[in-house]
Structure formats: C-alpha cells, structure tokens
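Worked problem 6 (solution included).
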Amino acid sequence: MSKFKNIILNQPLGLIVLVIALAFILLFGIGLALISGFATIKHAGLYLDPICFNADCVERLVGKLQPSLNIARATLDVGVAFATMGGILIALLSYINSSSNAALTNHIEHLKIFLDYAESEVEKHDRLLSANFDVIFLYGKIFDQSRLGKTTVSDDYRIFLVDLNKILEESNERCTVGTPGGFSYKDHQRRVRDHLVSAGITIYLAPRNDYFEMEKQMFSFLSRINQSFCPFGTLPNIVLPSYY
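Solution. The predicted structure is:
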C-alpha cells in the first residue's frame, strides 16, 4: 500500500488532477447512463420479456435503450477529448518546466565560470582587489537575460562601454596642449569612478601615479572579460588613454 502511495505522490500534480477529473467524468456519465437504462427497462417492462437473442429482440432492446446508450457514447467522447487536451497541456507544461530548469542550470554554470575567471584575473593585478568588484552585479550587467538561458551581451553593458569611452576620449583631448580648461586628473578620477560604479566596480581616489596604474589594470581586466565572454565585434574596444 505504501509503495502504491509513493508511486502516486511521485506523479506530476497535473497528471493526478487529470486522472481524477477524467475518472469523475466517466463515473458520472456511465452512472447516469446505467440509471437511465435501468429506469427505461423498468418503465417499459422489458424485464418481463422472455430472454431472446435473435436480431429482432436485440434491435428492439437497443432501440428502447438508445437514449441511455447515447449518454454512454457521449461520455466516452467527452472523456477521450478531455484526456487528449489534458495530455497535450501536461506535455506543454512539462516542456516549459524542463526548459526553465535547463535555463537555470545553464545560468548557474555560466555564472560560476564567470566568477572563477574574474577572480583569477583580479589576482593577476597587484593594484586590484576582489573588494573592488561586485562580480555578480557585473555579470548581471553584461548578461541580463542569463536566467532565461540566454548569454547574449546586454545593450545596457554596450552603452556602459560607449559612455566610458566618451569619458576617456574627452580626457585625451583635454591633455592636449592648448586645450581650454586643460586636463585635471582628479576630475578625471571622479568621472571614471562615478561611471564604473554603475557596473558594480568601485575605485577610490588616489595620488596621480597610483591611480593611473590602477586604472590601467582595471581597463585591462574589463578588456579580458570582454574578450573571453563576449562574441568578437559585439562590443567597442576600450579607448587607449593618452593622458598618462
């Protein structure tokens, strides 16, 4: 008994509901047909007729019980149609559930690879620390549809790189001799810092040479991430600074 109970409990809920509903339809319809048949036999006095199996007798009996037989036939038709539609629906839900589980599995595996790779890249640079990066946030910035099983690069991250390049290009222009306003490395630091935080990257203001060395390593880190995880040609290269 417990084995049978375990088998039932291990079945999908949709299948259990389908079987119960189908059983109810069949029991109700067949029961109604039997009640109708017995009432017809009693009302028409067919039980008083002698037992007879020739064609005329069978035809007469079937004719009298035709409404009851129609109920039984209609019940079977409804049952078959219900089972067919229910089976299709269960198969569809099962497919959706399997696809969702597969997408989640792919997301977790891809995220784990990304985390491990990012950590290894940070360790290669002496001016970068793991504390500077919210790697999961950065991953979500790059692959915003990963939970759906898609690892295409997001438009948001592409725009992030475009805007970063604008900051670097402007700083390159300002460092040119004769440019009005000139180049201020402190102002440059603040602009880069405020922009990087939108991708989960935190940098701190530092003396000129220390900051520029950290910035080089930061851009090297991002370039390696882009080259390793993003299809070639989908993202702009980070502009080479000329203000060092």
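Discussion: The longest helix spans residues 66-123.
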